[in-house]
């Protein structure tokens, strides 16, 4: 008698497992728009991230968000990616014109540690160079012309 109860219980457990796993596999049947839906959702998330980054006060962090979003979206939506790269370069350029080369000085007793902060313009150009070498070359030539102009103005003073 006890053996019959165990066999019935085992058949019941096996039936429940079969029912659960078959219903789960039918619920996960692949759809035709799965890849497109993921690309649209990825584009939406990256766009929201960039929109939220407009509230950041730290320019370096905002530029990093724009660079990473543009790099991520390059294969999915190149025009939006280019727009984000352009925005990052403009912000970096404006930041440099406003503050120039930045330093961080830390004093510890009689010693002073001076650290040069990164120039975000070159971070943006390096990120663009991974995707579009011609455009990166054009931007680096623009930066070089600006450096030469500044050097010429300093010699005249």
Describe this structure in words.
The protein has 157 residues and is mainly alpha-helical. Helix content is 76%, strand content 8%. It is built from six helices and two strands; from the N terminus they run H-H-H-H-E-E-H-H. The protein has helices at residues 2-27, 34-53, 59-73, 78-99, 120-131, 133-156; strands spanning 103-108, 111-116. Strands 1-2 form a two-stranded antiparallel sheet. The longest helix has 26 residues, at 2-27. The mean pLDDT is 81.
Task: Describe the structure using short key phrases.
157 residues, 6 helices, two-stranded antiparallel ribbon, mainly alpha, 76% helix
Strand order in the largest sheet:
1-2
Tertiary shape: extended
**Derived structural class:** mainly alpha
Order of helices and strands: HHHHEEHH
Largest sheet: 2 strands, antiparallel
Number of helices: 6
C-alpha-based Rg, rounded: 28 Å
Low-confidence stretches are: none
Could you estimate the helical fraction of the residues in percent? over 70%
Whole-number mean pLDDT: 81
N-end to C-end Cα span = 107 Å
Number of strands: 2
Strand content: 5-15%
